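Annex B. Sample input.
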Amino acid sequence: MMGMRWLAVLLLGGLALAQPLRLEQGWVRRVPGDITAAYLVLYNPGDRPIRIVGASTPIATRVEFHQTTHAGHGDHQDVSAMRRVEALVVPARGRLEILPGRYHLMLYGLREKNPRPLAEGQKVPITFRLEGGATLTLTLTVEAR
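Annex B, continued. Sample output.
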């Protein structure tokens, strides 16, 4: 019986970890093509950082985390590039801003999953895999911005 109680604590611990993340804003960019980006701001009121190790959505075949980096010298930071990152961290009592010019989610393979291009106002669920096995599904809206 002790083993079952410990398992329940572990399961509840995973659920508790997933609950504190709050979506403060978010959208999926409306594009006519096969690839788009999603942006959001997550808030973690908890006392431990939360590490996001993966994501998926029914509208795409693959979701990757990318960071935009800026290169240049002095005031001339005019060259930007994207690099893939393996995980995103929402700091304890803090925000993770996945916004243009910083981090973003790349959604690939839209045409394989959608008979029509994304529509303005369409709701898109994205499921995040958290370190430790918990998941969190958030719904973003498609916007032309």
